[in-house]
Structure formats: structure tokens, C-alpha cells
Amino acid sequence: MFSIPLADDAQLFPLEIRHAEEFFAHMERGRAYIGEHIGFPDAATDLGSARTLLGNYAQKAATDTGRLYGIRVDGTLVGGVLFRTFDADGGTCEIGCWLEPTAAGRGLITKACGILIDYAFRERGMRRIEWHASALNTKSLAVAQRLGMTREGVMRESHRHRGVLQNTEVWALLAHEWDGARQG
Q1: Given this model, what pLDDT does residue 1 score?
Q2: What is the mean pLDDT of residues 130-155?
Q3: Are strands 76-87 and 92-99 parallel, antiparallel or unpaired?
Q4: 150 vs 130: CA distance, rounded Å
Q5: Residue 114, Cβ neighbours under 10 Å: how many?
Q6: Which pLDDT score, from 0 to 100, does residue 139 have?
Q7: Could you tell me which of 181, 174, 139 has the C-alpha nearest to residue 37?
Q8: CA–CA dist 42, 61 (Å, integer)
Q9: What's the CA gap between 104 and 142, in Å, rounded?
């Protein structure tokens, strides 16, 4: 397996079905914090549903329509980043992230997302990368801003999370705007 260093004690790696037990344990630890804005904890409520979620992303990887990556600190899965959507023919994709509170504030998400952005633009020829986040998720919106993305607008009451309609902010970065130095 390969991994990319994010810090002396942190690595980015492909998150696969075989990591289901580790992923479920991670969701259990971070369920309240991660689940405040992200649906993964609600989708991975037991080992079987964790496998299903990872299997869905394995299918996306196999069809080149999305990918999932984990972040480990000192060998423990604490978060991740993903291509939620990936349209190679259209040249667009959407990235996202999640993280346990114990790993927050270290710049790991910004660096990991920078790696995904660099890959999408430089290796895959994408022309546009989007970031969708709840308008209430200020930490996620701050990452989009640190990555040099532009806030394009708000989709009002566009997403239901835990029974509540939420506004979704849309941020984007175009290939010609990307400066690899922003990777963190």
C-alpha cells in the first residue's frame, strides 16, 4: 500500500473496503463531531454499513467517478478526504473532507485537499473543482478559502441533514487559478 506524508506523524492513503473495521471504529469515536455536518456517521452505523459505504466508493474508484482517502495520525484513522464526484470527461469534480476533533487544527485537511487538487488539475486535466458545504460548517468553509477557492453562491434549503433543511455554500477553483504553493 502507498501513503503520502502529511506531517511527521500523519499519512494520506487510499481508504478501501478492507479498512471497514478501522473506518467504523473511527466513525464511532468521531460520530457526534463529524456527524454535525457530514453524513458518513449516519451511513456507517455498524460494521456492515461501514463496509457498504466503503464498497460504494470502491465502485466509484473502479468507474473513475470518485475516490476515498483516509488520514492516519500515529497509525490511527482520524479523518479523510474524497472526490465525492469525479467527471473526467466533463473536467469537473467535487472534493470534501471530514476529521475527528483530536486531529483538528493541524492543517492536515488543507494539505490533503491540496494533494487531491494538484492531482486533479495536473495529472487528470480537470478544469474545475467544487467544494459544497453546509453554510453552518465554518471550519469547512475556511478550508475552501485557504485553498484559494471562490465562493460562488448559496443553494438555499438544498440539503436535508438529520431532518433539517440546510443551505449549501458552493465554492470552486479553476485550473488556471491553482497555485501549488497553496497546498499548505
Answers
A1: 59
A2: 95
A3: antiparallel
A4: 9
A5: 23
A6: 94
A7: 139
A8: 22
A9: 13
According to the model, what pLDDT value does residue 10 have?
98
Triad 63, 16, 172: Cα angle to 5°: 60
Give the pLDDT confidence score for residue 181 in this predicted structure: 43
| DSSP, res 152 | E
Q: What is the mean pLDDT of the chain?
A: 94
Contact 130, 94 (CB under 8 A): yes
Half-sphere exposure of residue 113, counting CA atoms within 13 Å on the CB side?
31
Q: Give 57: exposed, middle or buried? Use CB within 10 Å, 0-12, 13-18, 19+.
A: buried
Q: How high is the pLDDT of residue 155?
A: 84
Per-residue pLDDT, 182: 47
Q: How far apart are alpha carbons 64 and 139 in whole angstroms?
A: 28
56 neighbors 34 (Cβ within 8 angstroms): no
Give the DSSP H or E segment for 109.
helix 108-118
User: Strands across the sheet with 164-174, in order?
Assistant: 4-7, 10-14, 67-73, 76-87, 92-99, 128-134, 164-174, 150-161
Given a contact cutoff of 8 angstroms between Cβ atoms, the answer to whether 130 and 140 are in contact is no
The answer to whether the beta carbons of residues 91 and 127 sit under 8 Å apart is yes
- CB neighbours of 142 closer than 8 A, spacing ≥ 6? none
